Amino acid sequence: MILKIEDVSCGYGLDPPIVSQISMTIRSGEIWCVLGPNGVGKTTLFKSVLGFLKLKSGRITIDGQDIRSWTQKKKAQVIGYVPQAQNNPFPFSVKDVVLMGRTSYLSELGSPGKKDVEIAERNIHMLGIGQLENKKYTELSGGERQMVLIARALTQEPDILIMDEPTSNLDFGNQVKVLKYISDLSRRGLAILMTSHFPDHAFLCSSKVALFRQHQFVIGEADNIVTEANLKQAYGVNVQIVSGTSEQGKEIKSCVPLLDD
Ligand SMILES: Nc1ncnc2c1ncn2[C@@H]1O[C@H](COP(=O)(O)OP(=O)(O)OP(=O)(O)O)[C@@H](O)[C@H]1O
Asked: What spacing in Å lies between the alpha carbon of 93 and ligand 1's midpoint?
C-alpha cells in the first residue's frame, strides 16, 4: 500500500493555504512523524488527507487511485483516524465507542455481529484498557479517552493509521506503551502518519519525519531531519542531540533542551 500526498496545498475557505505544496510518500510498514510548532498546519494537513477539507491543489492517492472518488465507507476501511482526545456528549460505554470502529463494515441498518465484538474486545485488551470496558466514555480521564480512541481506530482494521498527537494527555508510561504499539503495528504492515510535540518520538519510532517550519518543511529520515539546527529554526529554542548505546547494544538518541541562551 502506498499513500501519496502529491504537491498538496490546503487550508480553509478562500484564505491563502496553510500548508503549501507538500509531497510525501508513505508506504506500508513506515512510521511518519509530523513535527512543527503550534498552529503551523499539521492537523490541517491530516484533515485534508482524510477528506474533511477540500484540497486547494494537488492530489492524494492510495495505490495510484485518487481518493477523492472514494466513498467515506471505503476510506474508513483503509484509513483509521485517531483525533486529539475529544469530549463526546453522549455517555456511550467504552465498549460501544470502540465498536463504532466497525461502522464502515456494517450494512445500513445492521448491528455489529460476533466477529465485530471479538475484534473490538481484542483491541481493548491489547491496549490494556479491559478494566474500562463498561465505563462511560464521558467519565474517563483525558489519557483513558486517548487509549479508547486508539482502540476504536484499530477496530477499523485499517491499512493506514493517522494519529493526531496520539500521546497527548498520556502519562509517561502510557506514552512509551503507545509508541511501542505504534512500532509493533508498523512491523505488522500498517502505515502510520502521526503528529507529535516531542521530536524524541521520531527517534524512538525510527521514523521518517516531516518537520514544519513557518511556510516551509523539511522531509527525510529522523537522523537527518531532527537536528539541532532544524529544531532551532522550527521552534526557536536551543537543543542538544545526545546519543549513546542502550544495554541491549542499540543506538539511542534524544533531544535535550538547553535552558541557557
Ligand atoms: N476551521 C478553521 N478555519 C479557519 N482557520 C483554521 C481552522 N482550524 C484551524 N485554523 C487555522 O489553521 C492554522 C493551522 O492550524 P492546525 O490546527 O492545522 O495547526 P497544528 O499545527 O495542528 O497546531 P497544534 O500543534 O497547535 O495542534 C492555525 O492558524 C489555525 O488558526
From this structure: 31
Please give the Cα distance from 159 to 78 (Å, whole number): 5
Sign of torsion, CA 224 40 180 257? positive
Q: pTM value?
A: 0.92
DSSP 39: T
CATH class entry, domain 2-257:
alpha beta
CA–CA distance, 59 with 21 (Å, rounded to integer):
10
What is the SS3 assignment for 202?
helix
According to DSSP, residue 93 is labeled B
- Mapping DSSP to helix (H, G, I), strand (E, B) and coil, where does residue 92 land? coil
pLDDT digits (tens, 9 = 90+) for 144-155: 888 899 999 999
Sign of CA pseudo-dihedral 18, 24, 30, 33: negative
Q: List the residue whose alpha carbon is closest to atom 24 of ligand 1.
A: 38
Distance CA 206, CA 203 (A): 5
**pLDDT category, 261, cuts 50, 70, 90?**
low
Q: Name the residue of 20, 35, 43 to mutate for ligand 1: max ligand atoms within 8 A of Cβ.
A: 43
